[in-house]
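Action item from last meeting closed. Structure (497 res):
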């Protein structure tokens, strides 16, 4: 047998040490649990999941009273568990503002004398100021050959959306990405507006999920997503409007204006102090988000987008981890942060990571829970486990060892690759911390067909799998909380974007 290369021997040694840490943690807990799995209870998870993602909180839309009501409920659960407040002014809460920019109701769009209204029979894909009065030219499906036959300079360009998405990417994401990129190409070629008409598949998205465009864009105040600029509009129409845009001699006349508002959102922050006099000043941060999409256009008669998996599962998991740490605190302090307005662009985690309520340098690791209750019962994924997304091999190896000591999930590696079209690594609350150089990983069971639809209901969650991922999360955090050294960051960490 050939000798093992040094890199493999080093990796084996790291995994062995991490395994010892997790095994030691499980052994320490056996005195009061009797079984390493009993610290996380399925009954607790199910009760909290159905509460947070039930219709009472109306989908917990970021920046609404529903998000605030759900946040108060979470704070009260933390109080009942015995978690110490760690937000602002001795409370569980860190309030912040989010800014919304949207198309005004008096904006006007017309083609050939027919009037369209944003959010009803037309969607303007990005809020921006525009005044257009231009000939409308139709270029089929917008292939290079079709566009080359038409002089688009100074024109409004109409085309039918078409295309087949890659296997790994959701159709909705493919649709929006393709529209954005194709529109940019046409505007660069001289078009003053772009008008998309739905094909059969796009029409389903237009009918059932177009409310996101009606809401506009969100950011922290003054952020790039809410800056008001003048731009060539991209307008999306229904499939039934195809004959209209195909008629020769049509004109697009549009006056589009925007307005901006600020709303409150909130992070929920609590801690369970560590038992070690020195290490208790350091924090293991358990992360999730409490918001989802709220009340929107009904789909099959259901207007509440409950977000049971996204992210009722993560919300319930953190409460379970709190109970486990309350029974037996670690040497380091366990810090729990529910980030508000994640669905608006990771706003709560961006805010907390920039203005943490504990010293930023005291945060030794971030363990983020994002959608952890669906798909095959024996599979999961760990985002941030491979380059270029990995920023701490040390932390990743501890998480791998914790998985082997608990659920032993088969770990998907495709979704953490920089080539994966979903860009899943960049879409949850671990990201702002990783950008700051804090060791950070994300536990997820990945997308499913009910993602961001009203069908993401608590009844569809695999409670046993949720418990398995929660135990994995907990054991990783327990190992980090009790080891002598904090996780070592990778010195050469650099994200691809």
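Sequence:
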């Amino acid at each position: 047998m050939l000798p093992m290369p040094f890199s493999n021997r080093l990796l084996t040694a790291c995994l062995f040490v991490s395994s010892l840490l997790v095994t030691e943690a499980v052994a320490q807990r056996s005195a009061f649990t009797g079984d390493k799995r009993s610290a996380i209870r399925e009954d607790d998870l199910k009760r909290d999941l159905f509460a947070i993602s039930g219709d009472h909180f109306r989908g917990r839309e970021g920046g609404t009273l529903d998000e605030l009501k759900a946040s108060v409920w979470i704070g009260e659960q933390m109080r009942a568990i015995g978690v110490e407040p760690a937000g602002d002014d001795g409370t569980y809460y860190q309030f912040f503002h989010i800014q919304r920019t949207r198309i005004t109701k008096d904006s006007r769009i017309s083609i050939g004398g027919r009037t369209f209204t944003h959010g009803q029979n037309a969607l303007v894909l990005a809020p921006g100021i525009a005044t257009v009065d231009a000939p409308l030219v139709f270029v089929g499906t917008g292939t290079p050959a079709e566009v080359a036959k038409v002089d688009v300079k100074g024109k409004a360009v109409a085309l039918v959306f078409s295309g087949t998405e890659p296997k790994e990417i959701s159709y909705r994401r493919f649709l929006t990405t393709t529209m954005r990129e194709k529109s940019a190409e046409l505007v660069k070629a001289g078009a003053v507006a772009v008008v998309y008409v739905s094909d059969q598949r796009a029409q389903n998205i237009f009918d059932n999920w177009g409310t996101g465009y009606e809401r506009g864009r969100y950011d922290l105040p003054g952020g790039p997503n809410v800056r008001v600029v003048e731009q060539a509009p991209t307008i999306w129409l229904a499939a039934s409007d195809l004959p209209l845009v195909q008629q020769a001699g049509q004109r697009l006349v549009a006056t589009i204006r925007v307005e901006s508002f600020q709303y409150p959102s909130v992070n929920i922050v609590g801690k369970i102090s560590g038992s070690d006099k020195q290490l208790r000043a350091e924090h293991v941060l358990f992360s999730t988000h409490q918001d989802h999409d709220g009340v929107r256009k009904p789909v099959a008669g259901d207007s509440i987008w409950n977000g049971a998996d996204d992210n009722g599962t993560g919300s319930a998991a953190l409460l379970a981890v709190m109970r486990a740490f309350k029974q037996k605190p670690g040497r380091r302090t366990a810090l729990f942060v529910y980030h508000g307005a994640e669905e608006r662009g990771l706003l709560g985690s961006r805010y907390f990571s920039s203005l943490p309520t504990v010293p930023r340098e005291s945060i030794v690791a971030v363990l983020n829970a994002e959608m952890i209750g669906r798909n095959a019962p024996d599979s999961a994924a760990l985002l941030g486990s491979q380059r270029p997304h990995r920023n701490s091999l040390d932390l990743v190896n501890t998480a791998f060892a914790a998985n082997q000591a608990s659920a032993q999930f088969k770990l998907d590696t495709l979704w953490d690759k920089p080539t994966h079209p979903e860009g899943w690594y960049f879409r949850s609350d671990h990201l702002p911390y990783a950008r700051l150089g804090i060791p950070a990983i994300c536990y997820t069971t990945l997308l499913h067909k009910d993602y961001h639809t009203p069908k993401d209901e608590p009844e569809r969650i695999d409670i046993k799998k949720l418990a398995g991922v929660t135990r994995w999360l907990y054991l990783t955090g327990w190992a980090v909380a009790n080891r002598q050294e904090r996780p070592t960051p990778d010195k050469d960490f650099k994200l691809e974007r």
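Note appended to the action item: DSSP finds 13 helices and 20 strands in the chain.
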